[in-house]
Amino acid sequence: MADGDERVGAFWRGLGLPGLIDVHTHFMPARVMAKVWAYFDAAGPLVGRRWPIEYRLEEDERLAVLRGFGVRAFTSMIYPHKPGMAQWLNGWAAEFAARTPDCLRTATFFPEEAAAAYVRDELADGVRVFKAHVQVGAYDPADALLDPVWGPVAEAGVPVVVHCGSGPVPGKHTGPEPIARLLARHPRLRLIIAHMGMPEYADFLDLAQRYPGVHLDTTMAFTDFSERDAPFPRAERGRLADLGDRVLFGSDFPNIPYGYAHALEALTPLELGEEWLRGVCYGNAARLFGV
């Protein structure tokens, strides 16, 4: 057990919730996960600092841990870093969701000619959420090759968790400007900005105020680990309250360098109230995903 694991259940029970919904968890093919962990172990250039993996467990053990925490629904965030990879990952994720009923079926895409067809197939087959990783994929989310993807995704109302902030290190296409261009073309998109858009928190809050389909997930935000290098501005707490129905709990499990409880307990010092916490930890995602 990691430090504080025994406190997770007490946290959500204390709020009167039936459990938690975690919109940002990673389940991947074993060899892909092994490569991801090796990258973190080496503190690769997209990591930028020492990053021990707290829940380095076999898949069945990770599932048991999440369920033991009381997580009622979660995702299998997958992401390609090159053409020709997304469709294979989607096949694995569909099989994983079929044998894991509490997982929201997840898919991904990459700017390539085949994207329009395989995203259309995923929508027809009932995908619940997409993952887009602008930093790892090193692509412009407004790339013309993705135009036939974003339109149908927006029309279907399927949320997309997108890592587009410049944390932990900037990428060629990270930051608010590419997402602003994308939303100008597809304003009905339901985007979930991963990590609250860290470190460009204020800019992504601006986009959430401008576009009603923009949500933000709390993944790694507000934790001691992130506050050291990318503190959330205290002056923006009021907007967190105003947008409380579009803030969703995410953890980055299992790839976090601290115990799961800390991701939850780091929300309390924001002093936004129990109703806000109930929405973030369960109600908002339950409504968005129909859980």
UniProtKB/TrEMBL annotation:
The keyword Lyase applies. This is Amidohydrolase family protein. It comes from the Bacteria. Keywords: Lyase. Residues 21-290 form the Amidohydrolase-related domain. InterPro entries: ACMSD, Amidohydro-rel, Metal_Hydrolase. SUPFAM superfamilies: Metallo-dependent hydrolases. The keyword Thylakoid does not apply. Pfam families: Amidohydro_2 (PF04909). Transmembrane segments: none annotated. PANTHER family: 2-AMINO-3-CARBOXYLMUCONATE-6-SEMIALDEHYDE DECARBOXYLASE (PTHR21240), ISO-OROTATE DECARBOXYLASE (EUROFUNG) (PTHR21240:SF28).
